[in-house]
Design a protein that fits this description.
It is a single chain. This protein has about 260 residues and is of the alpha+beta class. The chain has two domains: about 80 residues; about 130 residues, no CATH class. Helices cover about 35% and strands about 25% of the residues. A hairpin with a 5-residue loop joins β5 and β6. α3 runs antiparallel to α5.
């Protein structure tokens, strides 16, 4: 199998379609497409175009990067380190049933930031990224955690200090901890105009900006919402809880 970059477009009715691309040794580009499924039947080869350029064209149309996948000559899609999906052409034996019913766990996350924002928005985004990074560092020190060696910190910070559009992607592994994910979640939640943030699991599921809806990702990093709540509130990912006891301290007693 060959490695492809997979993108997804979500329709307003909730359905979606996928598009994948790879560069070949002869300089050509191969693309595959179809409805989101275990197989992409459409295929074509093109010359005289760069993969980066054709990816940007698709992203301009609303496609969001999902991750790197393997696709065989028949169009069957497999995410890294995952078994081949069960299709109708396979016998529905004991192993097939097991593959369909076993719970899916998250092993790593794929992220992608495509920035086509103007200079003013780029400045605002850079300020926000560094403010959130300060919140992350303060929380990490309070928890006596070791610094994460995730390379995305420096890459995204450097790109935000520039004046040109940029396109960055990578992975977040378990050993990187939850902080890189939360940093990107804050950027996704902020929704700066011209800035597209995609986070996906190995199965191709898009990770939302709703922390409460991402139990499997929290499990990946061995944490939960209550542990992360103070940090998540400072990043804008959770609304601050109202402390009724403190709220009533300043209330004047009008009983007489």
């Amino acid at each position: 199998m060959a490695v492809w970059s997979l993108f997804r477009y979500r329709n307003s009715d909730g359905s979606s379609k996928d598009w994948a691309v790879r560069s070949n040794s002869d300089g050509s580009i191969t693309t595959r497409w179809g409805k989101t499924a275990n197989r992409l039947p459409g295929v074509s080869n093109r010359y005289g175009v760069q993969q980066r350029d054709i990816e940007r064209q698709k992203q301009a149309k609303g496609y969001v990067w999902v991750g790197l996948v393997d696709i065989d000559v028949n169009g069957n899609v497999r995410f890294p380190d995952k078994p081949l999906p069960v299709t109708q052409s396979q016998p529905l034996g004991r192993q097939a049933i097991t593959n369909q019913t076993s719970p899916v766990t998250v092993d790593k996350l794929y992220w992608h930031v495509d920035c086509r924002a103007g200079h003013a928005t780029l400045l605002d985004m850079g300020i926000a990224l560094r403010r959130w990074l300060g919140d992350l560092e303060a929380w990490s020190q309070a928890q006596c955690l070791t610094a994460s060696d995730w390379s995305g910190w420096q890459r995204l910070n450097d790109a935000s200090l520039g004046e040109e559009a940029f396109d960055l992607s990578g992975q977040i592994h378990r050993e990187h901890g939850a902080l890189p994910w939360l940093w990107l979640m804050a950027l996704k939640h902020a929704a700066f105009p011209g800035v597209s943030v995609g986070i996906a699991t190995e199965s191709g599921r898009d990770v939302s900006a709703d922390l409460k809806a991402e139990a499997d990702v929290l499990a990946l990093f061995d944490t939960d919402i209550e542990v992360l709540r103070p940090l998540a509130e400072s990043l804008g990912l959770l609304k601050p809880r109202l402390n009724l006891a403190l709220a009533m301290v300043d209330q004047t007693d009008h009983w007489f």
